[in-house]
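Lab notebook, design round three. We kept the backbone fixed and only want residue identities now. Task for the bench partner: fill in a sequence for the structure below.
Input structure tokens:
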């Protein structure tokens, strides 16, 4: 019997994962996977909440995400990789929790609010509005204690604590109130300098990218717009190229030297970028190779998913039994 505390965390499978995912969350998952019993959820239902016309792409992305996870070194034997839609208890608990979630609580959720503003009115469905409740169900089903996520997910974890507390007070103690944990870089800027690395903005470097694509992306990165010549003093602060150096270049002396020369106008952007490309490729090279390896061993990839999902399903069934018992909806009325 395991006595490890539990983690549930996850991602929407809308495409392959990128550097922002890595420093925002994945790095923590790697570190924590030995100390916690982890459920890594591929939230395909949640992905459908705003991609209902792209079901095939979401199905394909389930595999892309799994390849990324295996490539960075998440261990599917110690921990469970879970496909959300294969565990119908997620839908059942979502419905029950929606009855104790005040509408206003959802309306005030800042992450949901800003996502809703970006959707056209006809795309804004009831299901999308309700996705934070389904995320609460994701976290509560395995009774997670800890949820390592990117910064934008914090409002959802806060809601999870509220709703878990309310459930426990109303029906009896079933759920722990989980803590959130944010990665080293809560939100990584895009290669174009926009606030966030995001597939829809086309400003990503993906974990599976090969050397040539990484170098190309880096060489065209947005940098200090006030600097016209290499001899102009430049700005390090707020400069995406240096933010990436800080996040990924292990050679701290090199980064320090580049910064010192940059601010006095004694290094060109090309050199700074070339060194960044090298640092990124040193980091991503082994990930790319392992990803290619797994692509040739798809049986292992599918086995990891099915095995993890089976384990999660058992845990989910147990929790749902406790939920129904606590709510006294498990027996037929007398
Ligand atoms: N909302 C997360 C994302 O956008 C994915 C997710 C779904 C999740 N369920 C979760 C994250 C539960 C943490 C815990 O990527």
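Proposed sequence:
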């Amino acid at each position: 019997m395991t006595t490890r505390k539990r983690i549930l965390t996850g991602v929407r499978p809308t495409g392959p994962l990128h550097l922002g995912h890595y420093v925002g969350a994945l790095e923590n998952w790697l570190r924590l996977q030995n100390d916690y019993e982890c459920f890594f959820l591929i939230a395909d239902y949640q992905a459908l909440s705003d991609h209902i016309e792209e079901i095939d792409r979401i199905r394909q992305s389930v595999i892309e995400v799994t390849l990324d996870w295996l490539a960075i070194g998440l261990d599917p034997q110690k921990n469970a990789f879970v496909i959300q839609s294969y565990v119908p208890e997620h839908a059942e608990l979502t419905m029950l929790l929606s009855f104790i979630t005040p509408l206003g609580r959802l309306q005030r959720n800042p992450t949901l609010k800003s996502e809703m503003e970006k959707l056209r009115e006809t795309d804004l469905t009831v299901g999308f509005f309700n996705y934070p409740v389904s995320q609460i169900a994701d976290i509560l089903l395995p009774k997670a204690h800890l949820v390592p996520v990117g910064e934008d997910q914090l409002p959802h974890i806060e809601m999870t604590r509220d709703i878990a507390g309310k459930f426990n007070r109303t029906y009896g103690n079933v759920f722990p109130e989980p803590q959130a944990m944010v990665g080293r870089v809560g939100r990584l800027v895009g290669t174009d300098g926009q606030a966030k690395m995001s597939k829809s903005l086309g400003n990503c470097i993906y974990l599976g990218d090969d050397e040539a694509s990484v170098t190309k992306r880096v060489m065209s990165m947005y940098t200090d717009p006030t600097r016209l010549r290499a001899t102009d003093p430049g700005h390090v602060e707020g400069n995406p190229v240096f933010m990436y150096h800080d996040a990924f270049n292990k050679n701290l002396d090199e980064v320090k030297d580049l910064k010192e020369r940059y601010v006095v106008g004694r290094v060109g952007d090309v050199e700074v970028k070339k060194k960044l490309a090298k640092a990124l490729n040193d980091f991503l090279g082994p990930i790319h190779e392992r990803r290619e390896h797994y692509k040739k061993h798809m049986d292992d990839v599918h086995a990891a998913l099915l095995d993890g999902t089976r384990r999660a399903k058992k845990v989910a069934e147990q929790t749902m039994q406790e939920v129904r018992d606590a709510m006294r909806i498990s027996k037929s009325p007398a």
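Keep this in mind before ordering anything: The mean pLDDT is 96.
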